Amino acid sequence: MERLKVCELFAGVGGFRLGLEKYGNFEVVWSNQWEPSTKTQHASMVYEARFGSNNHSNINIEDVPTDTIPDHDVLVGGFPCQDYSVATSLKNSKGLLGKKGVLWWSIHRILSEKKQKPKYLILENVDRLLKSPVKQRGRDFAIMLRSLSDLGYAVEWRVINAADYGMPQRRRRVFLLGYHRLSEIHEKLKGASPQEWLFDDGGFAKAFPVIPNVGQLESFPLPRDVLQISDGFNKSQALSPFLNSGLCIAGDIFTSATSPMYDGRPVFLEAILENGTVNPELFIDEKDLGKWEYLKGSKKEVRKTRAGFTYNYSEGAMVFPDSLDQPSRTIITGEGGKSPSRFKHVVSTPKGLRRLSPLELERLNMFPDNHTKLDGISDTKRAFFMGNALVVGIVEKLGKVLFKKIIDFEK
Q1: DSSP 8-state class, residue 200
Q2: pLDDT per residue over 49-59, tens digit each?
């Protein structure tokens, strides 16, 4: 079988590409990366430096005509978590109009306008997608699933914490696998038991095994009208109906709570640290130690707003310095820079307390060493990239299982 052609949206510095192309079964034929809030396109610069500029787009995806995007077998992307509510529908035209600047609707537009639709989708987002917005828990996810179903896709999802499967970072994200109705996997899925697919036979079950029968399978139909979902889904309910694993087939939802099953060796923070010399600027100055200890510590204090109102503020203590005998905490975009912070990682070394280096942050996301090192790219920007990135090892596993399923089912 020839390699599967991939379209990589919201590419960042290429995490999806690294994971999928590792085994030679996938080939990225077109990619797009655009950062709207900055004049210099740093992430795109890194992407082109590592993978070349051929078939790479560095303009706003909303401005890219669908017919300029090559046909592909797999569409992938870690799109931003935004408000996906529907602005209006058009009676006499295709599809829906979401709010401008909400990038989910760019994926929807490409899938709806492509005459030869990609057979497979791999999408990634923060896990709060399953329960947003606050006043309509799960509405945004319901809009996505309904619109993908209308476009001919069955979708399975799973919230995955990378550390639960032997990876070095506690990073929890929701992943989606989509199968178009013209694919062999979709045919198999239609005839399968939803429970067996979620626990044993599906893409996530094969790549990331779970303890069987942890939760009872719950099911419900989605409203057929996306506008109805946007306006009224799950109003006034405290909890989202979407659990951490699930399946959407023809608008019918099957969802269950699952727990990870992994008997391999864990990877701890200590294992990814540089053994040689690191930049001296990473070490915490003695005069700043008190600020770090305050920010990391527990607090119960009275604070005042700018308007002059006082309120009681409290928060628990962070582990300081970070435990070396555990997978790391989640990397955030503000990881770089010298300034004291509650959320930046700090490790204890024989030479003193220090922050993590850009290379160490890359290792926590399972990127190649110095993948983001490039003239003109600061260490702070490199840390920002990793705060936005996904864990490459998860994509590797998903790609491997997806390719095997395609091969097996086509036989």
Answers
A1: I
A2: 999 999 999 99
Q: How far apart are CA 316 and CA 227, in angstroms?
A: 42
Distance CA 112, CA 110 (A): 6
Q: Which residue bears the tokens 């390719």?
A: 403
User: Looking at domain 4-262+391-410, does it have CATH number 3.40.50.150?
Assistant: yes
Q: In the chain, what are the helix, strand and coil shares in percent, each to the nearest 5?
A: 35, 20, 45
Residue with the larger pLDDT of the pair 230 and 120: 120
- Taking the alpha carbons of 153, 403, 372, 129 in that order, is the dihedral positive or negative? positive
Rounded Cα distance between 69 and 399, Å, is 22
Is 248 catalytic? The answer is no
pLDDT in tens, 142-156: 999 999 999 999 999
Coil, helix or strand at residue 309: coil
SS3 (DSSP) at 146: helix
Q: Which of 58, 60, 81, 318 is catalytic?
A: 81
Q: Per-residue pLDDT tens for 122-133? A: 999 999 999 999
What residues does each domain of the chain span?
4-262+391-410, 269-388
pTM of the model: 0.94
Residue whose pair of structure tokens reads 């057929």 in the numeric block: 224
How far, in Å, CA of 199 to CA of 211, rounded? 8
Q: Which of 254, 25, 264, 20 is nearest to 158 (CA)?
A: 254
Cβ atoms of 218 and 225 within 8 Å: the answer is: no
Residues 186 and 224 sit within 8 Å (Cβ to Cβ): no
Q: What are phi and psi of 380, to 5 degrees?
A: -65, -40
The answer to whether 240 touches 137, Cβ cutoff 8 Å, is yes
Beta strands in 64-190 (DSSP E): 74-78, 86-89, 96-98, 120-126, 153-161, 172-180
Is residue 169 within 8 A of residue 162, CB to CB? The reply is: yes
Q: What tokens does 380 get?
A: 């702070």
Per DSSP, 357 falls in state P
Residue for token pair 């996997």: 185
In terms of CATH, what superfamily is 269-388? DNA Methylase, subunit A, domain 2 (3.90.120.10)
CA distance 396 to 19: 4
